[in-house]
Write a structure and sequence with these properties.
Number of strands: 5
Radius of gyration: 25 Å
Helix content: 25-40%
Order of helices and strands: HHHHEHHEEEHE
Largest sheet: 5 strands, mixed
Number of helices: 7
Structural class: alpha/beta
Length: 247
């Protein structure tokens, strides 16, 4: 990953909108006196959203002033976390994971697609639609190789599926995020490999098919009554201090 630096071309000023300013004050108020600097990450994130997906230098300075921090300290945060973009980005910003698990699964071929379809890293296409950058691990190693586009993960990619996703976005379509192969989330490819004995589930009364395991749609919803397996065991009574059974 290359060194992260501020963009050469910078807007002359930055100020939170009245709505974002009230939001920022509410975030700061969550922390006890003397700990307001803990709000630096949410404030930088809101500043990035307001600025169109990237953090200008003036936005970093504005956050530093609000929190009473040295500018260099806020700059350290902004340059450390790749969630903060230090130069303008496209409407669809691709974060490409180039760490070891993804590289072992063919991420180098995905990088060639990004160069071909978008251009050099951190460049924005002439129509403002796409940009891309290489980042550290995005935590979806089981589904490598993968990329994050805006807030969505696209996993189990091949050069062909990544090309299709980019083409769909350019055409105004909404490609399905998540695994791009026949697998459920991070479950094993090809279906279940453990706990497949139907007798394990006999009589649980929860499966759509008698004796089968629960599916996602069968899972207990928030607020629903707990079943016998989820209900906590009753605590044993506390013996009286005068009980002769106590040692």
């Amino acid at each position: 990953m290359s060194v992260r630096r501020l963009a050469e071309k910078q807007p002359p000023s930055f100020a939170f909108t009245s709505q974002n300013l009230e939001w920022a004050k509410a975030q700061i108020a969550k922390y006890p006196p003397g700990r307001q600097q803990s709000a630096v990450i949410p404030l930088l994130w809101r500043a990035q959203q307001q600025a169109g997906g990237w953090l200008p230098q003036k936005a970093i300075e504005a956050v530093a002033e609000m929190l009473g921090m040295a500018r260099i300290r806020v700059l350290e945060v902004a340059t450390f976390y790749t969630m903060f973009n230090l130069s303008p980005v496209g409407r669809f910003h691709v974060q490409f994971c180039g760490t070891t698990p993804c590289m072992l699964r063919g991420a180098d071929q995905l990088k060639k697609v990004l160069h071909h379809k978008i251009g050099h890293e951190n460049d924005v296409t002439t129509d403002g639609t796409f940009s891309w950058t290489e980042v550290e691990c995005l935590g979806a190693c089981v589904n490598a190789p993968m990329v994050q586009i805006n807030a969505d993960y696209y996993e189990d990619l091949t050069p062909e599926t990544l090309t299709r996703i980019l083409d769909d976005l350019a055409a105004g379509k909404t490609p399905q995020p998540g695994p791009q192969i026949d697998r459920q989330l991070s479950a094993p490819v090809g279906g279940e490999t453990t706990l497949t004995d139907p007798s394990l589930y006999a009589g649980n009364g929860k499966s759509k098919q008698a004796g089968g395991p629960l599916s996602d749609s069968d899972a207990k919803k928030p607020g629903a009554t707990a079943n016998v397996h989820e209900a906590p065991l009753p605590k044993p009574p506390i013996a009286d201090a005068t009980d002769p059974r106590r040692g």
